């Protein structure tokens, strides 16, 4: 029971984890941050870019298929949010631009990305549904439990897909091996008969 409790606690911690990062971006540089996210997951982000005279920083959020989810020219501070359409890699890119021949300092960028339960605004939910603080907390725990169940279901589905792929690959390899052996046996038999006829034609054997 203790092991199950710690495993569940770890899953809850991972499910509510928010990705916060701070980095420096030199002028005329592109930097992208990528993350794999499940399907139908709410993702929200908050960013802040330090001031730098003469520099412009563009923000671009897209999926691995090139679909733009959020774009902001000359980004300084703001928020973005979207819901994932499929399980794939999503990226957040910052690009600083400075006029040719000019020099400037690196811009400090702060990015905080949340997904799942942590990305939902329960204050708005409480106002819309007129919930009490305890009811809001219960709602949050209910959504968190649902996210955990969905994550386990997705992992089980992926495991089944990988197992089916392995079994299919093993079957194909087996059939290919049998086919290769049959081809080798047929070729060896043909060579034996051919050499036998050749030696008989040369009267080397009877």
TrEMBL record:
InterPro entries: Emp24-like, GOLD_dom. Its main location: membrane. It is found in: Membrane. Residues 30-180 form the GOLD domain. It is a single-pass type I membrane protein. Keywords: Membrane, Signal, Transmembrane, Transmembrane helix. The chain crosses the membrane at residues 173-195. Pfam families: EMP24_GP25L. Residues 1-20 form the signal peptide. Belongs to the EMP24/GP25L family. PANTHER family: TRANSMEMBRANE EMP24 DOMAIN-CONTAINING PROTEIN. This is Transmembrane emp24 domain-containing protein 10-like.
């Amino acid at each position: 029971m203790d092991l199950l409790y710690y495993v569940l606690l770890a899953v809850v911690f991972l499910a509510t984890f928010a990705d916060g990062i701070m980095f420096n971006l030199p002028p005329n540089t592109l930097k992208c941050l990528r993350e794999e996210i499940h399907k139908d997951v709410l993702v929200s982000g908050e960013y802040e870019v330090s001031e730098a005279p003469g520099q412009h920083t563009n923000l671009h959020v897209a999926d691995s298929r090139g679909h733009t989810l959020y774009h902001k020219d000359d980004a300084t501070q703001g928020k973005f949010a979207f819901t994932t359409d499929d399980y794939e890699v999503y990226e957040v890119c910052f690009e600083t631009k400075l006029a040719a021949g000019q020099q400037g300092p690196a811009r400090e960028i702060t990015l905080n990305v949340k997904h799942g339960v942590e990305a939902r605004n329960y204050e708005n939910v409480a106002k819309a549904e007129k919930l009490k603080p305890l009811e809001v907390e219960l709602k949050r725990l209910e959504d968190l439990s649902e996210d955990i169940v969905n994550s386990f279901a997705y992992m089980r589905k992926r495991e089944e897909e990988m197992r089916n792929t392995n079994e299919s690959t093993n079957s194909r390899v087996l059939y290919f091996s049998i086919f290769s052996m049959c081809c080798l046996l047929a070729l060896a038999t043909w060579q034996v008969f051919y050499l036998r006829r050749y030696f008989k034609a040369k009267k080397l054997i009877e």
